[in-house]
Design a protein that fits this description.
344 residues; mainly alpha; 81% helix; transmembrane helix
Length: 344
Amino acid sequence: MNTEWRYFRRLLMAAGVVLFGYVAWSIADLLPLVFAAVLLSVLMSGSARLIRSRAPIGHGTSIALVVAALIVALGSFAWLFGAQLVGQLGEVFQRAPGALDAFGSRFGFDNAASRVRDELSSNPSGGLLTRAASIGYSFVGGMLDILLVLVAAVYLAADPKVYRTGLVLLFPSAQHARVLNAMSVTATALRLWFLGQLVSMVLVGIASGVAFWLIGLPSPIGLGLIAGLTNFVPMIGPVVGALPALLLSFAQGGSAVIWTGLAILIIQQLEGNLITPLVQRRAVQVPPALILFAIAGFGLLFGWPGIILAVPLAVTCMVLVQKLWVRQTLGGQTSVPGEQEGAA
């Protein structure tokens, strides 16, 4: 009887693992949004903790102050630079067809923009209107996803103990302290990584905007913003962020192409060899090969959201593997990112 019960219990565990995998696969599109909300709530909780260390207020009040500060900061930025930024970004997209034609003519492809436009509109199943509607739906869906992430992050940051406790209860009671500690170290590592990445993004955006202004490219603020934002994704992001500036430099002609390419190369070399090493002294350093495989792997699993969140997902996996498997299971001696900072 005892043998039959053990067999039945193992069968139930195997069925549970299969069911969990099926559910996870079915909601694969939701998982990046959940992780994005957790990441944002971790950043908000860290900012709230910094406020509480300097003012005698409670957790809820500090979270409210963080949310209010974000709203005020974004509102002030939009009021001061919004119109100019939107205008310059619009100018970038308006000039894109001419820049694409100029780029194509350099390599023997006349009317490149028209060819791209014809290719996009040659869908026999629906044509241009169907594609436009699809883009519209995608844009609305993207805005709703962002709103969902923001609201969920506020709820997670407002009362994190409820969600941490609920997650810990899924593990055996003997592992509760271990899981809680791993979650705390992971949160610290994510905060350190984001702080380092934010510094790098800001410096790259400012340097790119100034360089494009000195070269004489149109809309240097918009181009600098694109370069800074795309730098969030290592390796792929800088290449994508450089394309609009290069296309517009071809439209300018003359030496603008050479100066633009040289400026992009110098900025990326400074970012990779000076800015990133200096920032990562107190941040989390992810090996380049791991970043590359993370972008490819999470991109295959979750699409573009997986590519955008590949590095913080890699940081999370790296911390959990080093702490829970290498150190606590195998008994190896290894340093875990975020552990010393969290203890301090």
